[in-house]
Amino acid sequence: MIPAISIDFANLNIQTLVPMSVAIVGALIILCIDLVNKKLDKSLYIMLAVLFLIVDFVAVISYSGDVRGMFDLMMIDGISILAQAIMIIASILFILLSFTKQRFNEQRYPEFYALYLFMIAGFQFMVSSDSLILIFVGLETASMALYTIIAMHNRANAIEAAIKYFTMGALAAAFFAFGSMIFYAVTGTVEFGKISEVLFTSDFENYPLVLLGVVFILSALGFKLSLVPFHVWVADIYEGSTASLAGFMSIVPKIAGFVVALRFFEIFVSSGNMFVEAILIAIVVLTMTIPNVIALLQKDINRMLAYSSISNAGFALSAIMIGTTQATMAMFLYWILFSVTNLGAFAMLWLNRSKDYHTFSTDHALEKYAGLIKISPMTAVIFGLFLLSLAGIPPFALFWGKMYLLGAAVNSGYMILALIMALNSAIAAYYYLRPIVYMFLKEPSVEGIKFMVNATTTSKMIVASCAVFMILSIFFIQNILETISYYIQIAGY
Questions:
Q1: 317, 257 in Cβ contact below 8 A?
Q2: Which end of the chain is less packed: N or C, by CB atoms within 10 Å?
């Protein structure tokens, strides 16, 4: 007779589930409210989503329980708290961009906001566990919600984008499952800490099989982080989505992916594994370089920013490959500054979207912004500042992120990598400056065109906040680094 299982609920540390539970409960409440009354203004659902995300944020930063919980599946360490805080703040800012004068198709439905909260909960699970099983569950929860949100835009290229993303995501899920299966077969566990212990103890026995597992996991993460050569879906999906959702995809999902990559590759980087390091170096260099070259050829700002986000993912991944505490700090600093800057850039595209002009080949063709300084000087100045920051021009935000990342590479002896990073920054500066040339030095290509047609007081405040932070970031860098350092040190990285 099988003995009864005795569970001590006090030892389960259910508190580890509170942040994600807030987002999930919020999504369910939104769906229930819609079932009761379908005539409520959709602004209510925006504010409810923001309210639950604020409560979620408070639950994250106030967490003071044990690191492990729920049969050791959950792991709320410093890295988890830091990543969740960044994701939630970015998610709040992006959902507030839904306050626009034009209500686009997906924003008419409460399900959009429910799916948004489910997606955030999925990403939170990804960064709050070192179990391959729970990471996979979180990854697929977030991905399924994101596929649906993209398709809800209800344009021909949006449906195409959702199908492409779903297809690529299904392939990535299969790779992740195969990789997890291999590591379980080799080590008998799916937890990163125990996998590391078994591999070290056995001196990486069955090394070819371990390498195969690394390739599968790396391929899965490569799709999610849009690393070369798994990046081919990015530009089409960003173009098929709204500019605000494209900005969201360029920031929040990648934070979750970087944390998983950090936990996974720490196993091999800390042991000085030459083959894994060589694979990472190749992917980092290719991811920084190839998208930069492709971005030079783009005539649409949205697609240009899409390839730019791929290249920036390569910069951030270099920190994981370097593997030092300084590099880990540099990765989080870089992605925080990139998040603010990219949020502002995509928000400007979002607020300037218009269906009134079909003269241009795409919604955000370079020609559309020609002569912007004469039509809307403030719009041109703010947009230009965001582009200068993305180019890494001092003293704007991303310059400090790039400098700290370069410093981490140099201090770790990766001189050639640092040189490649500097060269790619120079290449990127060219295509970031090209829209500025159109805005400030060319004549308007269409008479009577209007800008900021979707702007509301709320969306203007978000853009203004990002611009102020970006300009004055030099005064906050040290404080941000101290906060990052605190959380990384308590996580043991």
A1: no
A2: N
